[in-house]
Design a protein that fits this description.
By secondary structure, the protein is mainly α. The chain has one domain (about 10-145). It is built from 7 helices and 2 strands. It has helices at about 10-35, 40, 50-75, 80-85, 100-115, 120, 135-140, and strands at about 90, 140-145. The chain has a two-stranded antiparallel ribbon.
């Protein structure tokens, strides 16, 4: 099945390409977030052994950066920068942009897809609608956007 607008579902290779692009951006963002903690540790790594309270705060900040990265992009245009490069868009099953509850559900379900050796991602290869476990669990889908279409 395709999108409400008749857009085709995205395949595994294209989705992994976008994920790779986004991971480069996200790693850079997480490095900047971590660097902000270094003045408080004297340049040392933020570990639970050396800085237990700061380590908890650091992990929370990294989690917020990850959720914020995907949430802001998905809510605004349905695309991260990597998804835009690969002409992909994530949308709810009704074709609407994601809200924060959808974003949180998709990220949580994404962890479920990764846990059993990424089986939830590989599911795209056998699913008739090319949907991963996290697509199904969060009631979303990823579609390929034509070159000329802007959201």
């Amino acid at each position: 099945m395709s999108s409400i607008e008749g857009l085709p579902p995205a395949g595994l290779a294209r989705r992994l390409g976008a994920l790779f692009y986004d991971s480069l951006l996200l790693i850079a963002l997480l490095m900047i977030g971590t660097a902000c903690f270094l003045p408080f540790t004297g340049g040392e790594a933020v570990t639970f052994d050396a800085f237990p309270r700061l380590a908890v705060l650091h992990r929370l900040v990294l989690l917020l950066l990850i959720v914020g990265f995907y949430g802001v992009f998905w809510r605004r245009r349905g695309q991260t920068l990597g998804m835009a490069s690969w002409r992909l868009r994530v949308e709810r099953e009704d074709g609407a942009l994601l809200g924060w509850p959808d974003v949180l559900a998709r990220i949580g379900a994404g962890l479920v897809s990764l846990v059993p050796a990424g089986l939830g991602w590989w599911w795209i290869l056998v699913d008739r609608e090319r949907r991963a476990w996290h697509d199904r669990l969060s009631h979303t889908r990823v579609v390929v956007v034509p070159k000329h279409q802007e959201r």
